[in-house]
């Protein structure tokens, strides 16, 4: 009986090896933590460009280096530059801290005074007003310091991406062979990960740009102050769940009304509530639903976590990590439970039994 209760040598070796792997992986991640956003960004762009990369290399017979450089340039123009343009607008406007803070303080005081005079409701006490102004000042002065970090992340991201695109089959074979999972679960991870990345890397920026452009038209029509800056702020705010772009255009409308431009302020408010809101709903319920149905709570907590870990890039990577963690829990259940195989895995198991090949990213 005692022998039955003893832990086998194989189990001890497995546990010891797992501990060593985890310790080494922890040391690597800790010392290379600055490059984690670069790796995540490279994987994101690889998934987006994967189909076109195989088409150019295997059907059009392009050289791997040529295909890689063309796709890297295309991704830079289509994906990176629009996001960088919005960030650069914000940095350019917020970088001059003294000028910006003077205007922001007037803007905030005007809104507070107008609401208090009309409703006799002190929306922000003097202490809270000072805290808001201080936080905005710290953000504006630290915006420029993030420019170098962003450029460093982008450069290292494309350095990693080149080797992924140049040898895609080798890259995927290494990942799939390194994963200690069944082929069916590897296929499930690859398919779900592709959908998550497409929804976050393509869907969210498209929704942000769509709302920003529609909002920009309204800002010009109704004469809002600094419409180009408001465009960048609206696009960035649209990525925030629940409140979205309203956190930008509602204070602007109140400010315009407080300035005496009642008709223009009310017109802008109606335009933003109807047209910008309709644009948001239209894009989210068409584009994002087709790409992947991501639960709003995943987005909320993902953005909060991602912003803390990766800064501005966490708007995209945070929700992916939350969804991927939930996916791994599902894979763990599929891998080790005695329950029946889920429907989505039955086809994969059948193909694998027939000798089909498995790719990590489908």
Give a quick rundown of the structure:
By secondary structure, the protein is mainly alpha-helical.
Features of this protein?
15 helices, mainly alpha, transmembrane
Outline the structure in words.
Helices cover 82% and strands 0% of the residues. It has 362 residues and is mainly alpha-helical. It has two domains: 34-103 and 150-178, no CATH class; 181-337. Helix 3 (36-59) runs antiparallel to helix 4, helix 3 (36-59) packs across helix 9 (183-221) and helix 4 (64-95) packs antiparallel against helix 7. Belongs to the autoinducer-2 exporter (AI-2E) (TC 2.A.86) family.
Give the count of structural domains.
2
Distance between the termini: 49 Å
* Unreliable residue stretches: 140-148, 345-358
Number of strands: 0
Structural class of the helix and strand makeup? mainly alpha
What gyration radius follows from the Cα positions, in whole Å?
A: 25 Å
By DSSP (H or I, 4+ residues per run), the number of helices equals: 15
Mean pLDDT: 75
Encode the helix/strand succession as letters.
HHHHHHHHHHHHHHH
Report the sheet-strand fraction.
under 5%
The biggest sheet amounts to: none
Percent of residues in helical segments? over 70%
Overall, the morphology is: elongated
Family: Belongs to the autoinducer-2 exporter (AI-2E) (TC 2.A.86) family.
Transmembrane segments: 15-48, 69-87, 143-165, 196-222, 228-258, 265-283, 303-329
Protein name: Putative PurR-regulated permease PerM
Organism: Chryseobacterium shigense
